[in-house]
Design goal:
Radius of gyration: 21 Å
Order of helices and strands: HHHHHHHHHHHHHHHHH
Structural class: mainly alpha
Largest sheet: none
Number of helices: 17
Helix content: over 70%
Number of strands: 0
CATH topology: Growth Hormone, Chain: A
Strand content: under 5%
CATH superfamily: MFS general substrate transporter like domains
């Protein structure tokens, strides 16, 4: 019976028997991690309707500079702390920060400044927590494993994103908005034992990934603290990944601002419920796709199709909005964009980092995932504010601009996929010609 079960699992999600323990812990890791974030996300988004577009754009600008400084500090820490201590230390730090925010809401009567600080901090956490997770995964699993398993982990992220919003949706009014911070902090602490387990499986050779150095994770990566920035600016492939994320961010921001403005007449608790319900719909749709389709898509059609699929759909979606603007189409576009990102685009672009050095995975990747992403937020938010309030463009005109950006996004995806496939083919050809030792 166990043998039959393993064959059935392998047929459904392409996982080998020896990979199951580590893959299960990785799945649980990202499930709890995303659950914690999605407890916090509706709380953060509910606050945004209290502020004007300009105020929100200033907050996003502040977040960009904080993110850039934090990534520099992270690069310094990465250079000096053992990898096996680095990853759990990151999540312990964030858990402590949310406990501090919870305490601050009880120390001060006027929470306006605390709310804005919390909004900026959660926006930084939104990028950082998942970037560190995927850096860790790309350090554990090989290229071939990533094609089969990263979609499964994407499904775990979506399941966590579905489970997380249940608390603010069902219990937001009972628990109170700020008490949700305690729940999120506890969830972050729960993943620390899973990280130690995964590090032990890697050191025991339970996965195919070969460490970049003999010391594995028992020593720091070393190097300069600013190496992530110089590495990013010095490589065309990494710059292309940055451009890919930048264009995705612009798509996200345009839709986010429209939805934010629609909810201005609702109270904060109601907004939190609406944002939570939207998260439930998006992530529910993403689960089946990530679990059963992403691995097959990447292994059979290749990474080029995997990366370009959602951008191509966005070109069609924005074109439809330009022709027939309306709330229903905008909601559908938001669902497709986010569900497609969780299930297909995000796992696809994380596969790109399995072929780079460890220093790039832990130093350069946060620069791309956080600094470039938040820089895109700043650019997109002020661009949207200028188009909508400065020039006075309507939804149809903004949709035409967005369709052109989505087309460029598709072309960048094709370049990245082709580059990765060529590199992978060259490595496979080299390994076949090398004599056995």
């Amino acid at each position: 019976m166990p043998s039959v079960f393993l064959r059935y699992v392998n047929k459904l999600i392409k996982i080998e028997p020896h990979e199951i323990p580590a893959a299960a812990m990785s799945f649980l890791f990202v499930l709890i991690l995303m659950g914690a974030y999605y407890v916090l996300r509706p709380v953060r988004d509910a606050m945004s309707s209290d502020w004007s577009d300009a105020e929100l754009s200033w907050l996003w600008t502040l977040n960009f500079f904080i993110s850039a400084g934090a990534v520099l500090a992270y690069g310094y820490i990465v250079s000096r702390i053992e990898l096996r201590k680095l990853v759990p230390g990151v999540y312990f730090f964030f858990a402590a920060s949310f406990l501090l925010f919870f305490a601050a809401t009880h120390w001060f009567d006027n929470t306006a400044l605390i709310d804005k600080s919390f909004y900026v901090w959660v926006s930084f956490f939104a990028m950082f927590h998942i970037s560190v997770f995927w850096s860790f995964m790309s350090d554990i699993y090989s290229r071939s494993q990533s094609r089969r398993l990263f979609g499964v982990f994407g499904a775990g992220a979506s399941i966590g994103a579905v489970a997380g919003p249940f608390l603010p949706v069902l219990l937001g009014e009972i628990l109170g908005v700020y008490n949700l911070l305690l729940v999120a902090a506890l969830m972050l602490l729960l993943i620390i034992p899973l990280i130690f387990y995964l590090d032990r499986t890697r050191m025991a050779g339970a996965t195919e990934r070969k460490s970049d150095s003999p010391s594995g994770s028992t020593q720091s990566i070393g190097g300069d603290f600013f190496a992530g920035f110089t590495d990013f600016l010095g490589h065309r492939f990494l710059l292309a990944i940055g451009l890919f994320i930048l264009l995705y961010t612009i798509m996200s921001t345009f839709v986010y601002f429209e939805l934010k403005n629609v909810m201005v007449d609702y109270d904060r608790a109601t907004r939190a419920q609406y944002w939570g319900m939207m998260d439930l719909v998006v992530n529910s749709l993403a689960i089946a796709t990530a679990l059963f389709a992403t691995g097959r898509l990447a292994t059979k059609l290749g990474l080029t199709v995997t990366l370009a699929l959602v951008p191509a759909i966005m070109v069609l979606g924005w074109t439809a909005v330009a022709i027939a603007p309306g709330l229903a189409i905008m909601v559908a576009l938001q669902i497709i964009r986010r569900a497609g990102n969780y299930a297909i685009t995000r796992p696809g672009r994380e596969m790109l980092f399995t072929g780079v050095e460890r220093e790039t995975r832990f130093k350069t990747k946060p620069v791309i995932d956080i600094v470039v992403y938040r820089g895109g937020d700043v650019l997109a938010s002020w661009t949207y504010t200028g188009l909508a309030q400065g020039i006075g463009l309507g939804l149809s005109a903004i949709a035409i601009v967005a369709a052109a950006i989505a087309l460029l996004w598709t072309l960048v995806a094709v370049f990245l996929g082709n580059h990765h496939e060529k590199t992978n083919n060259c490595l496979e050809a080299t390994s076949r010609t090398q004599p056995e030792t």
